[in-house]
């Protein structure tokens, strides 16, 4: 297979990035790449890529994941197989493109690296850079457009949503002092910590419990809030170009200026008067999400996290055959204390608990892309779903895809436990302060 060379970099433009990857869109004319994006791995500026020897997975990860995954010769192949064999059956293969690994040269990556530098958010540049030592990158369908083949030019508007965790944890292993977790969503609590640490300047209005409520009104409320405070949870693209939200990360709350500009963008898609298009568009997005039923499916996968990190962390220490650091810190006897039930499970059960926790973690962090294109009266049968926007009397084809289904490393379990602790401690403290008359804290119960 032809390797991408330095000269090929001219045909790829910056589409966006997350913590772990940079994504490029194809602008050339090679049929091999038209309608595709290229996902390039990043490496931390002051760190190295996790490489545990010839096999992609660590010894303990090989216990956790079975089948083809454990035979994968590289981390990238293991990730691809994870999407194909673990996430895709759970979420529905019709909505997922695991992609293909294609060879890339160092010169191509160097060229891309300098080309995209000025478009990347500075905090992302400070944190990580494209890994120019990679010999492959992932070629995936560009979900922000419809596959070409259309006879006429048509506008495709697509929305990217990172919905985060949509339920309140129900594990009996949640400590009494952490009871706030059973009435406030993780997203809202994490917002408080992010604000406290200066990672955001304002609390998001978004509530994942509305998005996953299974009610039309709940979904609409969630979409409306995402529009007002998009952070890194909401973006809109028109024919693949970002028109709303943060390129490569989060963004500030919506201002009059940004909403006016967006109203203008919608001109080519929503047939309505100035001042009403955004409202109608948000109705369209909410209706498609509600109708697709896809969030119900996503929620089921998120709920594989039956034990919460407060339970799963004990199973983790058994999986990695180490004394439980949490029991030690809490002064609990591993074999007779509060968490002994978990430590007495056979290894198979501990593996299942941790495996499900990590799968749920992927499902809590992925994004959904919903793309729309207007249908005209004379259009023939469509292979896509159809949604009707009553307010404008328009019909749209729509398709929904999941992106960013990355496998989470086993060693992240300890980090998850610490982060959870940090979030819950801060929020519990804030609620306590709130009950003191002179203070007004911003954490609110979700239900
Ligand atoms: O821990 P969370 O909930 O903050 O999620 C992380 C995300 O933060 P955010 O959605 O902004 O809160 C975070 O997103 P950002 O970098 O903040 O855009 C990543 O998605 C991270 O995953 P990974 O380390 O790249 O595998 C995510 O880490 P995981 O928890 O999914 O491993
Ligand atoms: N298949 C795709 N089609 C269209 N756009 C995509 C696709 N995959 C990714 N993108 C765009 O690129 C951005 C970054 O991709 P992605 O979320 O996979 O990065 P990441 O580093 O793995 O994210 P995270 O921070 O969650 O680890 C996305 O937010 C989205 O805008
Ligand atoms: Zn323990």
Automatic annotation (TrEMBL):
Protein name: Inositol-pentakisphosphate 2-kinase
Reaction catalysed by this enzyme: 1D-myo-inositol 1,3,4,5,6-pentakisphosphate + ATP = 1D-myo-inositol hexakisphosphate + ADP + H(+)
PANTHER family: INOSITOL POLYPHOSPHATE KINASE 1 (PTHR14456), INOSITOL-PENTAKISPHOSPHATE 2-KINASE (PTHR14456:SF2)
Segments forming a coiled coil: none
One MF annotation (Gene Ontology) recorded for this entry: ATP binding
InterPro entries the record matches: Ins_P5_2-kin, IP5_2-K_N_lobe
Protein's job: Phosphorylates Ins(1,3,4,5,6)P5 at position 2 to form Ins(1,2,3,4,5,6)P6 (InsP6 or phytate).
UniProt keyword list: ATP-binding, Kinase, Nucleotide-binding, Transferase
Cellular component per GO, a single term: nucleus
């Amino acid at each position: 297979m032809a390797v991408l060379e330095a000269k090929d970099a001219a045909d790829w433009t910056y589409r966006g990035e997350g913590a772990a990857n940079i994504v490029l869109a194809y602008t050339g004319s090679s049929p091999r790449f038209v309608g595709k994006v290229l996902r390039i791995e990043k490496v931390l500026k002051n760190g190295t890529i996790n490489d545990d020897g010839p096999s992609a997975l660590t010894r303990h990860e090989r216990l956790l994941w079975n089948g083809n995954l454990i035979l994968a010769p590289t981390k990238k192949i293991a990730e691809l197989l994870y999407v194909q064999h673990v996430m895709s059956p759970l979420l529905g293969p019709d909505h997922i493109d695991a992609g293909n690994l294609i060879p890339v040269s160092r010169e191509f990556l160097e060229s891309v690296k300098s080309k995209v530098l000025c478009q990347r958010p500075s905090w992302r540049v400070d944190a990580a850079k494209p890994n120019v030592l990679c010999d492959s990158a992932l070629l995936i369908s560009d979900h922000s457009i419809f596959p070409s083949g259309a006879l006429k030019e048509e506008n495709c508007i697509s929305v990217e949503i990172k919905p985060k965790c949509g339920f309140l944890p129900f594990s009996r292993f949640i400590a009494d002092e952490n009871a706030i977790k059973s009435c406030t969503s993780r997203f809202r609590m994490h917002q408080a910590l992010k604000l406290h640490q200066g990672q955001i300047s304002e609390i998001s209005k978004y509530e994942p419990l509305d998005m996953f409520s299974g009610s039309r009104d709940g979904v609409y409320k969630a979409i409306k809030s995402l529009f007002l405070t998009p952070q890194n949870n909401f973006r809109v693209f028109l024919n693949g170009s970002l028109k709303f939200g943060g390129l490569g990360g989060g963004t500030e709350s919506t201002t009059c200026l940004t909403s006016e500009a967006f109203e203008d963008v919608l001109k080519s898609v929503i047939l309505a008067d100035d001042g009403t298009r955004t409202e109608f568009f948000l109705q369209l997005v909410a209706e498609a999400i509600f109708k697709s039923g896809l969030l119900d499916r996503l929620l089921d996968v998120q709920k594989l996290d039956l034990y919460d990190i407060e339970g799963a962390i004990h199973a983790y220490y058994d999986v990695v055959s180490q004394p439980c650091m949490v029991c030690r810190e809490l002064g609990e006897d591993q074999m007779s204390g509060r968490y002994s039930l978990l430590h007495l499970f056979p290894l198979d059960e501990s593996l299942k608990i941790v495996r499900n926790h990590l799968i749920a973690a992927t499902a809590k962090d992925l994004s959904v892309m919903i793309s729309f294109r207007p249908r005209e009266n004379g259009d023939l049968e469509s292979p896509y779903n159809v949604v009707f926007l009553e307010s404008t009397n328009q019909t749209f084809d729509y398709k929904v895809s999941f992106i960013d289904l990355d496998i989470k490393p086993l060693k992240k379990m300890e980090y998850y436990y610490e982060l959870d602790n940090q979030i819950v401690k801060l929020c519990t403290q804030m609620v306590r302060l709130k009950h003191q008359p002179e203070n007004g804290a911003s954490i609110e119960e979700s239900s």
